[in-house]
Amino acid sequence: MVLDTGFCQNGTSVEDPKVLIIDDESGSRESMALAIEKAGLEVRTFDDARKALEYLEENPGPNIALCDLRMPGMDGIEFLNLAQQKEYDLSVILITAYGSIESAVEAMRVGADDYLTKPVDLYELRKRVSNLIDKRRLEEEVSVLRERLEQRSGFDHIIGHSAPMERLFEQIRMVAPTRSSVLIVGESGTGKELVANALHDASPRRDERFLAINCGAIPNDILESELFGHERGAFTGAVGRKIGKFELAHNGTLFLDEISELYPELQVKLLRVLEERQVMRVGGSELIDVDFRLVAATNRDMEQAVAEGRFREDLYYRLKVVTLNLPPLRERGGDILLLAEHFLEEFCREHGKGPKTLSADAIHVLQHYEFPGNVRQLRNLIESTVVFHQGDVVEASDLPEELQGEGIAIVESGAPVQPAAGTPRSMDDIERQAILETLERTGGHRGKAAAILGIGLRTLQRKLKDYKEQGYWEE
Questions:
Q1: Cis ω on the peptide bond leading into residue 119 (within 30° of 0)?
Q2: What CATH number corresponds to the domain at position 317?
Q3: What pLDDT is recorded for position 8?
Q4: Domain count, the chain
Q5: Quick one: 361 and 395 in the same domain?
Q6: Residues 464, 374: one domain?
Q7: Which of 18, 91, 259, 374 is the most buried (most CB within 10 A)?
């Protein structure tokens, strides 16, 4: 039997563990070593458990130990306990000549991964070692996948590869693990709640609640109760106790959207909660400890609101420990097409329509529209298009009326039009796309872009000049 010692299914190489054989009986030790070596694994043998521990001190893992349960000096149980205390990367199969249930139970109770009885069946030995290696590989594969998931966590619903979005993703990765309050600033429709969710999902609080409340959508007299909760009889209509968002978000994240709309009296109370980490329900008399991460968002100029006396300065600075600025869609370059195609696929599926593609003219219209309503507007107009469209290819004339004036003017002007997705492209088209996307990713830094592309700076400048003259690029 040969053990598979290649790669994980996901392509991640897993280092094969060395097999340590610890047995004071030389015949048993040598026969087990020969069987394991035939399986293609590296073996180290020891007649004393203390020597094996000395080896582990220098070679902590990964290792698998086949250890006799009963040996003079240090026995298998003591060896296992000491190895666990040192936290070596070690899996242990204990071997006992006393094939009783009590011995097996003792071996597993102290933390052994498996056990065998003497005389050892060498075929069974190789099988158990093979199973243990498979188990270790699976655990490592799961660990790698979990790490990848955590790195992506919270970003799955935020679509974008433009330079401004890459910078935002990096900021989220840096901020998410901290306890700091975060203020998200961006125009309406840019996806501020998605970013708040991403912060939560990438944080240590990811397994707890994420609660969102829009401060501008709830009347003032109700908002306090929503945040703080209330006791029965606190006011007319309070027929029972209500737990507020501050309490419900304990150990989790609370997202306050449109924080600039918070009325002055509640601004004072929010500041007190952030400073004291305690709340009292409306009509209550008991202070309740709360621990939540606050993320606030606004589409207003908060400094102007502070200067005009509409927002407390001390609360503003308490909120903006970290500020994340969301770029408007018009500054996100190629993300417009990326989002449009994503929404097109999403709504075709949701509304039971067959697959649709965007024509070159439709793409050009979308890419040259300003989108004052940002991603929300793009999403809504793509859904509207899907609902009314009957064919397989969406033309510029099929787009909603709000795009028609500007869109048709662009197309009729004869400006260069990018080919639709799936359309064969020339090498010049592919080269142009690679150059412009690289320039965008480097934030417009021509020297860095040239280095990444492997071309000279003068060559890059000449090509950019040509693209500008052709209408493909603007400085």
A1: yes
A2: 3.40.50.300
A3: 33
A4: 4
A5: yes
A6: no
A7: 259
For 204, the token pair is: 């240590």
If asked whether residues 360 and 468 sit together in one domain, one would say no
Report whether 250 contacts 292 (CB < 8 A): yes
- What's the pLDDT tens digit per position in 279-325? 999 988 899 999 999 999 999 999 999 999 999 999 999 999 999 99
DSSP code, position 7: B
Q: Which residues contact 329 (CB under 8 A, 6 or more apart)?
A: 189, 190, 335, 336, 339, 371, 374, 375, 377, 378
Give the span between the Cα atoms of 364 and 411, in whole angstroms.
7
Q: Are 205 and 196 in contact (CB under 8 A)?
A: no
Determine the pLDDT at residue 253.
Answer: 96
When computed from its CA atoms, the radius of gyration of the chain, rounded to whole angstroms, is 32
The model's pLDDT over 392-442, given as tens digits with 9 standing for 90+, comes to: 889 888 998 878 655 444 444 444 444 444 444 455 666 777 788 778 877
- What CATH number is associated with residue 403? 1.10.8.60
Backbone dihedral region of 157: left (phi > 0), alpha (psi from -120 to 50 degrees) or beta? Answer: alpha
Among residues 263, 296, 327, the one where a domain terminates is 327
Assess whether 413 and 430 both reside in one domain: no
On whether residue 154 sits in a domain, the answer given is no
Residue 157 lies in a domain: no
Compute the distance between CA of residue 70 and CA of residue 98 in angstroms, rounded to an integer: 9
DSSP state of 327: P
Residue 450 lies in a domain: yes
Q: Which domain holds residue 442?
A: 425-475
Q: Is 433 in the same domain as 416?
A: no
Cβ atoms of 451 and 442 within 8 Å: the answer is no
The pairing of beta strand 293-298 with beta strand 253-257: parallel
Q: Give domain status of residue 13, yes or no.
A: no
pTM of the model: 0.56
Mean pLDDT of 192-207: 93
**Alpha carbons within 13 A on the beta-carbon side of 94:** 25
Indicate whether 173 and 299 sit together in one domain.
Answer: yes
**Number of residues written out for the chain:** 475
Q: Round to whole Å and give the CA distance between 181 and 183.
A: 7
> How many angstroms separate the CA atoms of 128 and 169, rounded?
45
Q: Which two tokens stand for residue 352?
A: 């039971």
